[in-house]
Amino acid sequence: SRISPEAPVPVNRVSKMKEVLGGAGNVASNLSNLDCKAFRGALAGNDDHGRLLQHLLDADKIDTTGLITSDDRCTIIFRP
């Protein structure tokens, strides 16, 4: 670890990243894990992040018939 030359903050090396559902997707995931039927409606881009979203929802057995993908949109992501 070292101090950034731009500001007096430490510079950290990323050792791993984990992509998870956030917000309403996280709620749907929690419900699904409690054996509740979860349905997720959303508008996502036809891009890598949209495909990842589909994969994460499918992995948690969340109904994605309401997931609409579009070539005209980009899937919104959040990185803290």
TrEMBL record:
Region forming the signal peptide: none
Family annotation (Pfam families): PfkB (PF00294)
Start and end residues of each Carbohydrate kinase PfkB domain: 8-73
GO molecular function, one term: heptose 7-phosphate kinase activity
Protein name: Bifunctional protein HldE
UniProt-listed InterPro entries: PfkB_dom, Ribokinase-like
Coiled coil location: none
GO cellular component: cytosol
Gene3D superfamilies linked: 3.40.1190.20
